[in-house]
Design a protein that fits this description.
Layout lengths: L1 E5 L9 H13 L6 H15 L4 E7 L2 E11 L2 E9 L9 H10 L4 E6 L4 H7 L4 E11 L10 E5 L2 H21 L4 H15 L9 E8 L2 E9 L4 E9 L8 H15 L4 E7 L3 H10 L2 E10 L5
Parallel strand pairs: 4-5, 10-11
Antiparallel strand pairs: 1-2, 2-3, 3-4, 5-12, 6-11, 6-12, 7-8, 8-9, 9-10
Helix pairs in contact: 1-2, 5-6
C-alpha cells in the first residue's frame, strides 16, 4: 500500500531543484522562448512558495517510489505536483489526501492535470474529480485564418471604464460558477483586476482592443503581452452581434496581432461550464496545456 511520508521542514529546500525542473517542463516552458528564462522563472516560483507547503515522499513498503507536493490555492487544498513510478496506483493515496484536506478545513482538493505527465493526469482522472478550468495554447507559427472585415483598434478611455466595470462583475460570476464561494469570487475578481490593470487602459504589458466591423463595435479583446506567450484574459462579442462568426474573427485578429508583435504563442483559460467557448477554441486549433480539476472533500469542516 502506498503511503505519504513528510519530508522534514529543514529538508524542503533540497527539493527545490526537482520541483523546479518538473514545473519548468510541464507548466513554464511553453510560456517562454528562452529555456534559461523559463527555468529561472520556475525556480523562483518554487523558491517563493516552498516554505508554505509540504513535500511528501511516496513510499511502498518503505521504498521511495515518488513524491507529492501539497499546499493551498485560494480556498482549496492543492496537489501542486505528483509523480510515482506506477501512476495507476494513485488511487491508493486518495484517502490520505482527503484526511489531509479535512485536517486543514479544506472543502475541495484541486490539482492541475498536464497531458504530458502520466502521474498528474492519472490523479485528476480519478473518480470524483470534476473539471473546473482548462488552459489552452495556440502556436503562432501555425496557419491563422483571415478575420475578414473585422479589425481591432485600441480601446478608448471611455470604453475601458465600461469594460472594467463589466469585467470585474462577469469574472466574479465565472469564478463563482466554477466553484468558488460568492465572497471569494468577488474578492479574487477585484484583486486580480486591480493588480493586472493598475493604470487602466495604459497598464504596462496589457493591450485592450475594441473589435469593429465596418466601423461598428462588435466586441472587445484583452491580451496580456508580458511574456513571449501572450495570453487572452477576456474576449467578448456584444450580445446583439452574436452568431455571426465574430468570436472566431476576434480571436484570429488577436492571434495575428500577437504574431506581428513577436509573440511565439497565444494562451487562454476557459472555464469548464463554458462549453461554447471551449468548442470554439478546439475548432481554432488550441491545444490543452493544463486541465484543472477539483474533488469535493466529504465531511470537511
Amino acid at each position: 500500500m502506498l503511503e505519504l511520508r513528510p519530508v522534514p521542514d529543514e529538508a524542503r529546500t533540497d527539493w527545490v531543484p526537482t520541483l523546479s525542473e518538473r514545473l519548468d517542463l510541464l507548466r513554464f516552458r511553453h510560456q517562454y522562448d528562452d529555456p534559461e528564462v523559463s527555468a529561472a522563472s520556475a525556480a523562483a516560483f518554487v523558491g517563493e512558495v516552498i516554505g508554505r507547503t509540504t513535500v511528501f515522499e511516496v513510499t511502498d513498503g518503505g521504498a521511495v517510489v515518488g513524491h507529492l507536493w501539497w499546499g493551498r490555492e485560494g480556498e482549496d487544498a492543492a496537489v501542486m505536483d505528483v509523480r510515482i513510478d506506477d501512476p495507476e496506483r494513485l488511487d491508493e493515496l486518495l484517502p490520505q489526501l482527503l484526511d489531509l484536506a479535512r485536517a486543514d478545513g479544506r472543502r475541495k482538493i484541486g490539482s492541475a492535470g498536464v497531458p504530458a505527465d502520466a502521474s498528474r493526469m492519472a490523479l485528476v482522472e480519478l473518480p470524483g474529480f470534476t473539471p473546473r478550468a482548462t488552459n489552452m495554447l495556440l502556436r503562432l507559427d501555425a496557419p491563422i485564418a483571415d478575420p475578414g472585415r473585422l479589425g481591432l483598434r485600441d480601446m478608448s478611455e471611455t470604453a475601458f471604464a465600461v469594460f472594467y466595470a463589466d469585467l470585474v462583475r462577469d469574472y466574479a460570476d465565472e469564478l463563482h460558477a466554477a466553484g468558488l464561494s460568492r465572497e471569494a469570487a468577488d474578492e479574487q475578481s477585484r484583486t486580480q483586476s486591480a493588480q493586472l490593470m493598475p493604470d487602466g487602459v495604459a497598464s504596462v504589458g496589457q493591450e485592450f482592443f475594441t473589435a469593429e466591423v465596418g466601423g461598428e463595435p462588435v466586441g472587445h479583446l484583452w491580451i496580456s503581452t508580458e511574456k513571449p506567450m501572450a495570453f487572452v484574459y477576456d474576449v467578448v462579442v456584444r450580445e446583439d452581434q452574436r452568431r455571426k462568426g465574430y468570436g472566431a474573427a476576434i480571436m484570429n485578429a488577436g492571434a495575428l496581432w500577437c504574431r506581428e508583435h513577436g509573440h511565439v504563442s497565444l494562451g487562454l483559460n476557459v472555464f469548464a461550464h463554458n462549453a461554447g467557448a471551449r468548442a470554439l477554441y478546439d475548432k481554432l486549433g488550441y491545444v490543452v496545456t493544463v486541465d484543472y480539476r477539483t474533488l469535493d472533500v466529504p465531511d470537511a469542516g
